[in-house]
Amino acid sequence: MTKSLAVLKGTCLAILLAGTAPVWAQDTHAVTFVQPVEPQGLDPTVSSPVAAGQVTWQNVFEGLVAIDRDGRVVPQLARDWTISEDGLTYSFHLRDDVTFQNGVPFDATTAKFTLERILGENSTNGQKANYTAISGVEAVDATTLVLTLSRRDADLLYWLGYPAAVMVEPGSADSNGTTPVGTGPFKVDEWRKGDRVLMSAWDGYWGEAPALETVTARFINDPQAQAAALQAGQVDIVGNLNAPELFAQFTDDPDFHAVAGAGEMEIVAGMNNAKPPFDDLRVRQALMMAVDRPSLVAAVSSGHGTEIGSHFSPANPFYEDLTGEFPYDPQRAKALLTEAGYPDGFSFEFKVPTRPYAQRSAEILQAFFSQIGVNANIQSSDFPATWIQDVFKDTNYDMTIVGHAEPLDIGIYARDNYYFNYDNAEFRQQMDQIAAATDETARETGYRKAQEILAHDLPALFLFSYPKLGVWKAGLDGVWENGPVPANDMTDVHWVD
Amino acid sequence: MTRPLTFLRSLLGTAAVLLIASLVIFLLIDAAPGDPAEIMLGTSAQPDTLAALRAELGLDRPLMVRYLGWLAGVFTGDLGQSYTYGVAVRELIAERLTVTLPLTLMATVLAVVISLPLGVIAAARPGKPEDGLASLFSQIGIAVPNFWIGLLLILAFALKFKWFPPGGFPGWDAGFGPAFSALVLPSIALAIPQAAVLTRVTRAAVIEVANEDFVRTARAKGLSRNRALWRHTVPNSLLPVVTMLGLQIPFLISGAVLVENVFSLPGIGTLAYQALSQRDLIVVQNVVLLFAVIVLVVNAGTDALYARLDPRLRARK
């Protein structure tokens, strides 16, 4: 008995020692950040760019231009550029001191290759549509790249800064998914699938060397597990903690910085505009007035996030506050419903993707709608697989609720066969005008007008912009507070003191 | 019938079951909503881009061609290439098994080590406080889901006492200590519901056997209570316990999916979950087939163990 007790004690001690070993001692040249969704390959120019870009964009791969932390387009591998008077010719002057991480120099020929690869017939770039205005790419000399456009596209420069258009080298392009080769300050050393990507500073970088020697992306999907990893010191940065109720515990903790920044994701309740009763403008407006958006934000994301009145979020430089258009007014909503021929309300199917923000929002919307006699039958829709097929492709739905994360994506309301089934000639014309804008002022005016049309017409109920709830260790500096693009840019991150 | 023939027959039977299982798995997964290419490309993809990716992944080939191709690959050991990771599925699965196998093994051992003594003690002293405690444990263990136990363990032993890491897996090349300690909390979370069920089964089985004639005879011949319990009752109660252990393997696997997720362990459960949500169908197919193989092998193993434990079953064949 005493012997077995001794063995038991010994085993326990061994386990404890193994557990307390200082594996995660603080290294002032290393940072580990959390990436919730493991990317499907590390190449942001194929497939869906979001998760891949969140690991490798700016860290490993760079573009002709970049989008900075304020959402503005800035030079990167192109020093500068000129746009012709008619808006149809873009001339880029490229840096001549850049090489890829495999030693191949970057020049206009590689840039031409990259862009033609995006536009090619066999392209699997999910963002291809954003670059289709380009009709010709010419490498005039090593540092001059000229793009010819078939139509004006005032957003093109922005999209050239997006993760989907990072520069790749012909020899390594096909293997970038597993062994990425870019021009950025960090190179990928190892991808332990299901667990982490290990990166380290690359000594051949053309720009200023980063302060960090190693950067690790850890894949932790569960928000509870993210918070636990932060508290246990396993990770240093969670760029966007996906559980607002867990965020509060970090705001009061002196060991952490907790910053509720502006995100690019707008939560909207899209309606099938081709189907009664949602084809009736009065019904859509009544539903909008039935929703008290500040209460919704308080309940869904602990008060973080901003209510919106149209499709843009406050993170967008062209954002206009249109929440006053249809404020919470159940009396007026009820009157409008009666006018539209539904004095006793109606019932509809509410297909809600299996995402926490969507499920919570849907339940609160259901309560709001019931106040004006409208009965929402909530049905969960497995996201992404079932939702994409059922709602997005087949538009077999009455109302749904989704976060739209892509910046500048107001044009979705002008697309044919998009899931809203919204068809408004005035709005389409407005989008054409924006594309043809020759200067920034005209572009801004165009986007403001587009927001106004949607705020009045309500193809979707505009609810709120989701906050970017960043949490990182005290002593870290340079982390992006806002999220104008989905990214975990570590180039400026450093430890202070 | 001679033994080699019986063996051959059961092997052929298993192969037939696996073949049918593979077809059912393939058809079910193919019928599930969600096109892998669409999910990979996101909602802004154009039709021509979708077509290009579908061709690249081989998704444009007819259903039966894809099934037969997969089946042929399974026989030659080539399980195909993951759509999303772009690496061989065989490597992916092998990598993940180095986490999941030790995890489930630890959990099973732990469950047996907890439940057998607890069940026997409860049976030996029915109605006593020990019995009440064992019953409380099994009730709680059955009622509380393992991922919730996992969360509580993280709160207590990772965040409060900092004895174990709250999640993640450093890999076996980081050394035995760190890798082992990363598996301790998840294996406890996985073991407790199993132990709860096994405690109940053990207690019931021991009580039932204790009332049999041969135990009464042994007691009548002067064997002490304790000796009768350990010498005659317990060994003869193991059969239902082994059955239950075998039956629980599928639950253990599905439990591992949740527990691995809570502890962000890169195991086969996380792989299955992720592959399913991203419709990496080729990975899902192979993982589900692997699960089917495991269940069949465990069943065969349980049968063999039966025969050893109960000579009557051997004689009947």
From TrEMBL, chain A:
One record GO biological process: peptide transport
Localisation: Periplasm
Keyword terms of this UniProt record: Signal
Residues making up the signal peptide according to the UniProt record: 1-25
GO terms for MF: peptide transmembrane transporter activity
Gene Ontology cellular-component terms listed: ATP-binding cassette (ABC) transporter complex; outer membrane-bounded periplasmic space
Domain Solute-binding protein family, residue spans: 73-405
Superkingdom per UniProt: Bacteria
Protein family (similarity comment): Belongs to the bacterial solute-binding protein 5 family.
Protein name (database record): Peptide/nickel transport system substrate-binding protein
Organism: Paracoccus seriniphilus
Automatic annotation (TrEMBL), chain B:
Keywords: Cell membrane, Membrane, Transmembrane, Transmembrane helix, Transport
Membrane-topology annotation of the record: Multi-pass membrane protein
Superkingdom of source: Bacteria
PROSITE patterns hit by this protein: ABC_TM1 (PS50928)
GO CC aspect terms: plasma membrane
Major subcellular location class: membrane
One Pfam family from the record: BPD_transp_1
SUPFAM superfamilies: MetI-like
Domain (ABC transmembrane type-1) ranges: 97-300
Molecular function per GO: dipeptide transmembrane transporter activity
Localisation: Cell membrane
Keyword Cell membrane: yes
InterPro entries associated with the record: BPD_transp_1_N, MetI-like, MetI-like_sf
Family per similarity comment: Belongs to the binding-protein-dependent transport system permease family.
Name the UniProt record assigns to this protein: Peptide/nickel transport system permease protein
Record organism: Paracoccus seriniphilus
